Amino acid sequence: MIKAFIDWYLAALADGGYALVALLMAVESSVIPLPSELVIPPAAHLAASTGRMSLTGIVVAAAVGSWIGASVMYAVARYLGRPILERFGRYLLVPADKLAAAERWAGTFGSYGVFAARLLPVIRHLIGLPAGLVRMSYLRYSIATLVGSAIWSSVLVVVGLAAGQDEALLAGDLHRITIWLAGALLILGALYWTFVHRVMHKRR
To answer: Is 191 helix (H, G, I), strand (E, B) or coil?
Structure first.
């Protein structure tokens, strides 16, 4: 399934370019589970190998797309409010417990939490909801989102370039793919445990 998506994506990038990267990153910043790890590294590899896009352009498109998706989440929370989200959030893959946990995160770290959230799994696509609920300054929210997203996108560009140099990986070597995924999950898991798990599971 992942290979099928990447094959489609690489072919679609020929016409979609930066707009497609931005669109998919906007989706990634909503409640739809589309990992940015499947969006940016393939685009970076394609840019490096064909010259169709620039790496800087990919980072900018990804950051803008993330901001658009995050802005939608912020607006939904700000203008619909907690009662609506608590009632219907489960249909958007945001049950009440996740919403409450994300709100504790926002309350603990404020606008700095928005920035950090763009670098972390799980909380990344949820942070707009508590930010909107507490009516955080949209300007501060936008700046933190854009900067954090740009940094995260730059990291994934580097990953894409490094992976593109691994001939065994590109050839579909399952053992090599497992090593790459294990390393990525180990790093993300450490970040998640350090910055998210301990906060989101504090005593309610």
So the answer is: helix
